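Protocol step 4 of 5: obtain the predicted structure for the target chain.
Materials: sequence only (see below). No template structures provided, no constraints applied. The aim of this step is simply to have a reference model before the mutagenesis design in step 5. Sequence pasted as it appears in the construct record:
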Amino acid sequence: MPLIDIQQLSKLYYPIGEVSNLLDVNPSLLRFWEKEFQLEVSKKNKKGNRLFTVKEIEKINKIYQLVKVEGYTLDGAKKALKSKEPRPVILVESSANEQVISRLEAIKNKLLALK
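Step 4 output (structure tokens):
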């Protein structure tokens, strides 16, 4: 499941269609989340189409992470977003996953050596 790499976003505003394509979801799901999570869309064009800033996309990314990747319910995701505790964002990228796995294996080996 794709997550948006926030660091690669270069434009000031992204239309809802682009954001939905980046996450591989329907635009209607983003509109639903906007209502459910009381997301404030800071800008709309003359037609009324939503234009998301990078900061708003970050919040959508967190919602996506909680609901689609980690399997939270909507109420659970709302509670998790309100909590002060920062949540790690899991990047679904094979090279990043391999790096994490190799680091974890190294830590495991060190811990086993300490036994």
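Step 4 remarks: The chain is about 55% helix and 5% strand. The radius of gyration is 17 Å.
Proceed to step 5.
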